[in-house]
Amino acid sequence: MDLSRRIARSRPLATADLHGRVDAMKLRGENVIDFSIAISHFPAPPAVLDAVRDGLRQPSPYTAVAGDPQIRARLAAKATRDNRIPATAAEILITNGAKQALYQALYAMADPGDRVIIFKPHWPAYVATCRLLELEPVLLDLPEQFTDAVLDGLPPARVLIINKPHNPTGKLLNEAELDRIAAWLRRTGTRAIVDESYEKLIFDGAHLSLAARADWQALGIVTLFSTSQSYAMMGWRAAFAVAPAHLVTAMETVQGPITAAAPMLMQQAMAAAFDSGAPEAMLADYRQRRDLVIDLLRNVPWIRAHSPASGPYLWMDVSRLGVDTVEFSERLLSQSGVAVMAGDALGAPGHIRIGYICDDVDTLRRGVRAIISCGNQLFQDA
């Protein structure tokens, strides 16, 4: 059967592909420590489980494609309360995960051939989605700081994608940087998609939203929120977008024939999660794990890793090994049974990304020590 030109030139996400390989290995009975993706060992918050129990006792209707009106109002209140985004229910779209929101936002905001600026290292879905939609991803290095000079040096583009807190580096943006980005959007007419999926996983500093300004609608800012990492709800596929009302309508037009509304139980669960406050116990656990791994790596001569300000990943520069990072990750998986994501998939060869929040602490230690042992052997042989 012939394939369309669009799909024939597309490739599966490297992150999803590796995670699928690891799952297949586990099904065969192989012992694998999976650092390739961040899957929390925490359950969903009690408020979420209570909301689902209550929801199971009620009728579960189809809702409007954009979501149940009352739940959209609760999520608008969350955006106003937590993120200082003055949003209304008409500016909320509930989706089956952040990837769906990203796809629909890009579909509604750009036409084939339009440029989309993406900073690397990047979440692979940004590039893959652009290519599916026949947009032109423009990959640029994530700057140390967003200055006026950096912003004025960006090429013309239809859309700018900002990921904050950043996957995989954990970088946060301060208020001055956000003000400069907003001013640049005004000057250039560029629109922005801001992925704030890790907003609750802040160890140091504070999370600030780019859309926390009176003219966010005029600037054309779409903000994505997700419970996946912020509330340990990876498999729930619960997310929403805050966007100008006309863009919500356009994104709803895309969503209608694909999935229609997200499941009502998921909508109820997501609203309960965001109403439950900050996940303090989970964050404290993650902070201890982050510090443990950084301490284990402290005297390893071929790894450069900083303690991230946020997020469920650690980003490591392993370029001193002098080997291809894809080959290193394959050797680590085959010889040591530890899966890590090579930075090549995120636009940054010479690096690896590890998700450090799954399994127990002893498993985390064993996995990190296996990485060190494998790299030490290569470093000594170099």
Automatic annotation (TrEMBL):
GO molecular function: pyridoxal phosphate binding; transaminase activity
Annotated ranges, domain Aminotransferase class I/classII large: 31-371
Cofactor section: pyridoxal 5'-phosphate
Keyword field: Aminotransferase, Pyridoxal phosphate, Transferase
GO biological process entries: amino acid metabolic process
Keyword Transferase attached: yes
Family statement: Belongs to the class-I pyridoxal-phosphate-dependent aminotransferase family.
Listed name of the protein: Aminotransferase class I/II-fold pyridoxal phosphate-dependent enzyme
Native source organism of the sequence: Duganella callida
